[in-house]
Amino acid sequence: MRTALQDHSLLYRMSVLLAVLVLGLLAYALAAWAWNSPVELGAYDMLLRMRPLAAPRSDIVIVGIDEASESSLGRPPLSRTVHARIIDRLHRAGAKVIVYDKMFAQPSVSYPGSDAALQKALSASGNVFIPMVYDPLRQASWSPSDIKSLILLERDALAEQISYLPNTPDYRYYFFVPPMADFISAAKGVGVAVSPSNGSYFVRSAQLAYLTRVLYPVPSGPLPQSMPMPRLINRVAVLQGLPLIVAKDILGDKEGLSSQVSFGRNIALFAGISPYYVPIDKQGAMYIDFAGPAGTYPNLGAADLLAGRLDRSLFEDKIVLVGVTDPTSSLAAVFNTPFGHMPRVEITANAIASILSGTAPVRRQKETLAVFLLLSIILGLILPLFDRWELGPATFVLALTYIVLDVLALTIFHRAFPVVPGVVLILAAGVVTALLMPAVFVEEETGITAEEL
Q: Can you tell me the distance from the alpha carbon of 131 to that of 192, in angstroms, rounded to the nearest whole number?
């Protein structure tokens, strides 16, 4: 026969479990609402800095146009002949891939003849990738040469096996600003440069897939008969981010048809026996697994390269990225990251490494719901075991344990879960447990105090 104390204890435990489950659902709603809030993103940055950092990839090297290089080679913009010499030196040194983080959208006016030198270097190397940007504020006038560049850009677009969500952003094709047509033809590939999102100067992720419909604007002048014909007009396509198109080439996935893009899930790269998955969110962005602060990857000066002061072995069979690293330069692209200020070329290096190493962090709302429900069940079963005086310290320890487990999940499984809503859930569960704890009722009915219960 059950005693009044046993019945009341069971009722207490069930009440706590049900109440904490409700709190778990409320915490998930809070997490979904504050998913990209400054507080939650700041907590995510904290997780990145708390985890043990793995060693950077040994096959990635940065050639920086730094302050010393600018003193030797001249202030930007450098002649494209200089860029051609850098590419030629890296090619002769045996670089596996060259990623040149520099826009070449317009003909050079200051240095006549330098465009031809750069085109020749790009063609001779055969392994150079160059960036483009998306500019919705660009001047609404497209010359015949602009149209030609957009047509040639179709070469690197993915037009098959694309699935997207109703809220996946759609980018206007003619607002992409590609390199000059001659450079597109000479380069191995063109991808969208890494840039901050939401109009900020903070970079946590690299957008790898840009959903678009291939439509062309009215040109400002007549098109020559030699203009190539577009093949994707009025078709849905995906333009690739620079880190993705580089990583695909390294992995061996050179044909667009062997890539499957699922916005909100992943990009499947069929580069071998089994698919290689790169996680992306609904916008097509991948969180970057930063190896550390700026300077983590070897940064070698461009002037030293051209002067022959760097050994060939530093570049042989390496992924070499070239870009401006001098933060005082007028052409510097330096953004804030979870590890402080970092030049775009090194952010791109971290993004490429995240794809190749398969370590890109993942934040999924559906996974968060499952974790919060599991956490609620655990809390609902554990918290009633503590008496009133033990409940406070136990709740605090459980909150710290959640943060530690969050760091471990990010380190081992590359999964990040909301920090603030999770801690709020644990603290609220402790308060609810204390409020539901049978104190006066049990003592009056059974003569047993709350401490004895």
A: 5
Q: Cα–Cα distances in Å, from 48 out to 242, 243, 267, 355? A: 23, 20, 23, 17
Distance of CA 186 to the CA centre of its chain: 28
Beta strands in 103-257 (DSSP E): 128-134, 157-158, 162-163, 171-172, 176-177, 189-192, 205-207, 209-213, 236-240
φ, ψ for residue 240 (rounded to 5)? -95, 145
Q: What angle do CA 357, 204, 261 make, to 5 degrees?
A: 60
CA–CA gap between residue 90 and residue 441 (Å, rounded): 80
Task: Please give the distance of CA 449 from its chain centroid, rounded to a whole number.
Answer: 55
Q: Identify the bridge partners of residue 273 per DSSP, sorted by sequence position.
A: none
- Length of the chain equals 453
* Cβ contacts of 132 within 8 Å, gap of 6 or more: 103, 105, 153, 176, 177, 178, 179, 190, 191, 192, 193
Domain boundaries, the chain: 4-50+362-446, 61-357
Q: What is the pLDDT of residues 216-268, one digit of tens each?
A: 999 988 888 889 999 999 999 999 999 999 999 998 855 543 789 999 999 99
Output the pTM of the full model. Answer: 0.91
